[in-house]
Design goal:
With 506 residues, this protein is mainly α. It has a single domain, classed as Amino acid/polyamine transporter I (Up-down Bundle), CATH 1.20.1740.10. It is built from 19 helices and no strands. The longest helix is centred in the first third of the chain and has 38 residues, at 98-135. The protein starts with 7 loop residues before the first helix and ends in a 26-residue tail after the last helix.
Length: 506
């Protein structure tokens, strides 16, 4: 089961040929993390978290941020040991063997393809709100929401995922400058939101703080985890960091601390101004986010609650008398979110590409377009799936399913750190996880805690996905694996496989 291991020495030999200049200090790492993390989750999932936890979602941000922090410290050790623009798939192949690597790669399909769908749905919500409020056009809900969310099909979400697919086939890549501008737009919009809402907070809006108890706070934390993913971009900069043993923890913990405070301020601004109590159905039962029942309950109150909004931050600003700033925040989300979809889909295609090149998926998937020099087959296939996900499923469900894959991958990396400390204690580690026998188990337990805090439907979907992965592995991949057949090729230099090289989901 664990016998087929991809040679760590061979991977590292490749890395030596392309070693990078060490120039990043603690401040640069922290800013890299802030830029990678802040984004989609806070724009899109605030309403979902409010429906699950009420004002208690502020505590949910702290819990999710803490789990990310301990996972990040484990991730950093692996990234510094295997600095090949790494990924959880590569790390697992080198440490725990092919089957675990396959399962991690299979889980990362959930992380990236489903996440791209979630962001597409989030973008659709802001775009529809922007059109309705800018041009006073009433958009039929049937065509901008999926069947689980009170509609028929989400056409704007399908459209944006289709446009991104075409760009990826043509070979369009984001430049660092464009990415920096988009990060500045996101942070600027959220800062403006905080500056305008915090002064008008009313303390009475925070009670009851946890209307659904601690289980609601845990459920919201499991969803909000989506708002933090992207921190691993810091972990993989270990090879370019001066004094990584000191600067890496500062960058990781510092960026997550700043983002957690930022997120709590945004959440406080929403709660303290317009309130964030869940909407209840018959028998005072809290309705699940992204369901027809919640849509019907919201229509009865004319969507006059933040939990009913598909563009929570812009809606809040309009409610407290800042319609123009609400318009600006909506515009910022519309501008910034497509770049995240692009990075998610780019990441997904590269995972498929490398798994195909390792023989675990059909070689047909790794075909490269003769003119555009991109893996066009797998890009179109990924785009098709993302379009279907975004057309028919609500953002909260997609984010939760994506989180299940991410949590599995992060737990696997944390286990890999412990395994390597035992099996290869003398190997050079530019960064060593502090108190690893405490931190790594906390990371594993934290990932497990957030996983079991997801909805039962999400957990069953993940189990079904994992079972399907085992069928594919034993039915196809195991017999065609290059490592299993002794055909080990070194292509790590151009793999650049996420989750590490591709910022950011958040």
């Amino acid at each position: 089961m664990f016998g087929r291991v991809k040679s760590l020495d061979a991977i590292l030999a490749t890395a030596e040929k392309k070693s990078l200049h060490r120039s990043l200090g603690a401040f640069q790492l922290t800013m890299l993390g802030v830029g990678a993390v802040i984004g989609t989750g806070i724009f899109v999932l605030t309403a979902e978290a409010a429906q699950k936890a009420g004002p208690g979602m502020m505590l949910s941000f702290v819990i999710a941020g803490f789990v990310c922090a301990v996972a990040a410290l484990c991730y950093a050790e692996m990234a510094s040991m295997v600095p090949v623009s790494g990924s959880a798939y590569t790390y697992s192949y080198a440490v725990m063997g092919e089957l675990i690597a396959w399962m991690v790669g299979w889980a990362l399909i959930l992380e990236y393809a489903i996440a791209a769908g979630a962001v597409s749905v989030g973008w659709s919500g802001y775009m529809v709100g922007f059109i309705q409020n800018s041009f006073h056009i009433t958009v039929p809900l049937e065509f901008v929401r999926g069947p689980f969310d009170g509609g028929i099909i989400n056409l704007p979400a399908m459209a944006i995922s289709g446009i991104i697919t075409v760009l990826l086939v043509l070979g369009t890549k984001e430049s660092a400058t464009v990415n920096a501008v988009l990060v500045a737009i996101k942070i600027g919009a959220l800062s403006l939101f905080v500056a305008l809402t915090i002064p008008v907070i009313r303390s009475g809006q925070f009670t009851p703080f946890a209307p659904l108890g601690f289980s609601g706070i845990s459920g919201a934390a499991a969803s909000i985890f989506f708002a933090y993913v992207g921190f691993d971009a810091v972990s993989t900069a270990a090879e370019e960091t001066t004094n990584p043993q000191r600067n890496m923890p500062i960058g990781l913990i510092g960026s997550l601390a700043i983002c957690t405070v930022f997120y709590m301020l945004v959440a406080a601004g929403v709660i303290g101004t317009v309130g964030a109590q869940p909407v209840f159905g018959a028998g005072h039962v809290a309705l699940d986010p992204g369901t027809p029942e919640l849509s019907r309950a919201c229509s009865l109150i004319h969507d006059n609650a933040v939990v009913c909004s598909k563009e929570a931050l812009a809606w809040t600003l309009r409610e407290v008398g800042y319609p123009f700033v609400g318009w600006l925040v909506g515009a910022a989300a519309i501008l910034a979110l497509p770049s995240v979809i692009l990075m998610m889909m780019f990441g997904q295609t590269r995972i498929f590409f490398v798994m195909s090149r390792d023989g675990l998926l059909p070689e047909f998937f790794s075909k490269v377009h003769p003119k555009f020099h991109t893996p066009h087959v797998i890009t179109v296939l990924t785009g098709l799936f993302v379009a279907l996900f975004s057309a028919f499923f609500p953002v909260g469900l997609l984010a939760d399913v994506s989180n299940s894959g991410t949590l599995f991958a992060f737990a696997a990396v944390s286990i890999a750190v412990l395994v390597l400390r035992r099996t290869d204690p003398s190997r050079r580690r530019p960064f060593r996880t502090p108190a690893v026998w405490v931190i790594a188990p906390i990371s594993i337990l934290g990932c497990l805690y957030l996983f079991i805090s997801l909805s039962q439907a999400t957990m069953m979907l993940f189990v079904g996905w994992a079972a399907a992965g085992l069928v594919v592995y034993y039915g196809y991949s195991r017999n065609r694996s290059h490592v299993g057949r002794g055909l080990v090729e070194l292509h790590e230099g151009d793999s650049d496989v996420p989750p590490s090289s591709v910022p950011p989901i958040a």
